[in-house]
Amino acid sequence: MWPLYAAGFTTAFGAHGIAANLGGFSDDAVTSLLVLGGLLALYDGAEVLLKPVFGSLADRVGGRPVLIGGLIAFAAASALYAIADSAGWLWAARLGQGAAASAFSPAASALVARLNPAAKRGRAFGSYGFYKSIGYTLGPLLGGVLVWAGGLRLLFVVMALCAAAVAVWAALAVPVVPPLPRKRQTVLDLARRLADPAFLAPTAALAAATAALSVGVGFLPVSGAEAGLGTVATGAAVSVLAASAAVVQPKAGRALDAGRLTTRTGLLAGLLITAAGLAAAVLPGLVGVLLAAALIGIGTGLITPLGFAALAAATPEERMGQTMGSAELGRELGDAGGPLLVAAVATLATLTTGYAVLAVLLAVGPLLALARGGRTARVAEPE
Question: Rounded CA gap, 346 and 261, in Å?
């Protein structure tokens, strides 16, 4: 399992470590906000298009070769800019990194499910999410240190070495998980499976959690700055968010495996806690920023391992890669949609209104589910 955790760390560290430092330390390549936006979108756009494709490929040929191949491609794409060091090759490197992450990220998720029995998947996905959260947390910080010490090329060199090392580790340690025989699947069969509530509900929860996480990381520093807080205080708030998510994920996974928590209860609670965190961001000053960061982190930390465990439990083993790739697509859409929604509302009204709108959207689904559950329970009660 450790190489899979390392792969999760690599994709998170690569995505946030480079993205957080493109604008401030690459004046020769990033000449405007439009160029910066394009470089950021290139990575995510590749993931949106290719994750379902590589997830299906993992089902066809096995997760291990797709994992190792994706890591090697990520190392090669990172080395491309490190060697060439030109603005044009930076675009090619970011596109290559996004395409490579689209391969090894869903393959790693599918292998986490395939290599663990159903009774231990909650803990496994909790640990996998923990190391991804560590990557998200350390990426901007360590990336900034590396860029300060040796420029953007040094960061790409480290990313290339990291991905290559994990690829070798995976080749040595991850067992061969052969693809399972699959029944022929039509486009209509796929549509039915992806429209099933067993897929839609966890995926929607994961997308909502990712949307809130992206909004917290991107906009809480803005709220802190508007309240007169310095960069240290706002940076600490983002660290609280990531640390809360990292701590909660393994605990949530263990509680699920032990039967102390069900996926339905955990997902509903996670969404409500996340919505409460967005609502807390409306409060002024440091208290509002820290409370929002902690609650968003706890809520998303609950949702992430439970959502993936629920997807794994409802998916035929031979279609695990396809499901994980499709679920990752949902997360990517939430990652882009959350900040866009809050930014659009903030443009028309205020940033606090944007937080409130997203909080309401996240809370509506769980509250309706709880209301339906209460009505069903009352109907079922004997007179």
Answer: 37
